[in-house]
Amino acid sequence: MNAPPPSTLRPHESFRSLLAHLEATGELKRARRAVDPKHELITVTLKNQKTLKKGSLFPDVTGSPAPVATNVLSNRDRLATALGFAPTDMIRQLEILEAQPVAPVEVSEAPVQEIVLTDGVDIARDIPQIIHCEGDAGPYITAGVCIARHPRDGTYNASWNRVQIVGGDHARIRMMAPQHLGQYQEMAEAEDAPLPVAMVIGAPPALMLSAASKIPLETDELAVAGAWQRSPLRVTPAVTVPLMVPADAEFVIEGFVVPHAREVEGPYGEFTDTYVEPAKNHVLRVTAITRRKDAVFHTMLAGAAEDTTLLGVPLQVEVLKRVRSFADIVDIGTPGHLFGCVVSINKKSDEQARAVLMAALAAHNWMKVCVVVDHDIDPHDAEEVLWAIHTRCRPDTGLYHIPRLGSFPRADVRPVHKGKMAFDATVPMDLREVFARREFPGIEDIDLDAWFD
Ligand SMILES: Cc1cc2nc3c(=O)[nH]c(=O)nc-3n(C[C@H](O)[C@H](O)[C@H](O)COP(=O)(O)O)c2cc1C
Is residue 318 one of the residues assigned to a domain? Predict the structure, then answer.
């Protein structure tokens, strides 16, 4: 995968700019009826995703102070559109630009502070109360990007963290080390200090992606977002906490993580499609909610296409960084789930395929099942990948089982995430002629509209 030239496509620097574009291009469906935020909003969205595969915008959410959008970035092409990249070179562009951070710029007029709620703020009244799964403990903020600063050197981190709404100024936030927010909290708590945070809802798309990415602790994630959108992130001082927040977001919930306080959070329907048992998590005290006058709230079902797109693309970037020295990489996908990847290569020797597999398995601890395929297989298409496994993999030599290595670490499901496996689904070099694919001359030029009604 060679370095592509800088993209000339225009990124969307705000969530609403992206929403407007998706609606104009038929990619976002606007509901014509009121929706119940308890279960109905997400069941309608899931059905939409399974059949129409569109984003959902609910202008009328019963009892809610704002409309709600969901399933917005639910495929790779939409994320590429949001960032202004061609889908085929998105991960390479992200890798290149991550090394060229662009510092944020402070602005005084911040749309996200058109309305400022401080006294008597009630998180159970002032934002939509959305309940996704039947067994969830109650309403959650599931699409909030948490902004925080390193307590010692001030570096900005962005991460996605679910927040269980309790009421008034009281909420619970899921975080833990070694994730960076968890490390920040440990440092603050060691000094008996609260950790100021800002939960950003409807963040600029580049910030949504940097929040989902494994960016080194010492790198400022607001500056990486600036690099990815090829212009500085517009920020403004928060009203009640010492943080800069994205000026063009839809909502910001300001507050602090209380030191030495833990409360039971959950159950919650997680991205593994199972419930996480109730467990002690951190306490968030809300000090302000700021928003646009016509703010659109964003919610995301854990494990739905939007979530797996936002987590999958950064995984693809991590794998690319590890495998690129071993072969000519065509593309990398994460079809199925996030516990594996598919690397498509222009193979020059059989050994290259094996080296790519070992490097891919080591790229991230979630990597449990990796597959290497030839250049003619689309690594984003699970059916093509299975076809390659069926027709090209030689199980007696092309299947690797690596015992005694863990992958996804969450305690409840960990028993099945022990050991790793890999499939070489490339055609062996000495059989290339036998496996040459059939050709159908002129197929690219056939216009079906000219043939059928
Ligand atoms: C929608 C969404 C929700 C997430 N929720 C959480 C969460 O509640 N707690 C958590 O620790 N990580 C969560 N993650 C994963 C982290 O955001 C991700 O691992 C991120 O890279 C961590 O940031 P860091 O690299 O700065 O530590 C979520 C990711 C997404 C996309």
Answer: no
User: Is beta strand 170-173 parallel, antiparallel or unpaired with respect to 275-276?
Assistant: unpaired
| 2 assigned to some structural domain | no
- 404 within some domain: yes
pLDDT, one tens digit per residue, over 221-248 is 999 999 999 999 999 999 999 999 999 9
Q: If you measure from the C-alpha of residue 214 to the centroid of ligand 1, how many angstroms do you get, rounded to a whole number?
A: 10
Q: Give residue-wise pLDDT tens across range 245-300.
A: 999 999 999 999 999 999 999 999 999 999 999 999 999 999 999 999 999 999 99
Q: Would the pTM count as exceeding 0.85? A: yes
Which residues, 6+ apart, have CB-to-CB distance to 379 below 8 Å?
330, 331, 332, 333, 335, 341, 342, 343, 344, 371, 373, 385
Is 81 within a domain? yes
Indicate if ligand 1 lies below 6 Å from the C-beta of 160: yes
Residue 163, strand partner residues: 141, 173
Q: Among the atoms of ligand 1, which is closest to the Cα of residue 300? A: 1
Cα(309) to ligand 1 centroid in Å equals 13
Q: Which atom of ligand 1 is nearest to the CA of 214?
A: 25
Residues 301 and 329 in one domain: no
Distance in angstroms (rounded) separating the CA atoms of residues 344 and 352: 12
Whether residue 175 sits in one domain with residue 116 = yes
Query: Radius of gyration of the chain from Cα atoms?
Result: 23
Going by the DSSP 8-state scheme, the letter that residue 119 receives in this structure is: T
User: Which of 241, 271, 305 is where one domain is finished?
Assistant: 305
Same domain, 215 and 336: no
Q: Please give the distance, rounded to the nearest whole angstrom, from the Cα atom of residue 212 to the centre of ligand 1.
A: 6
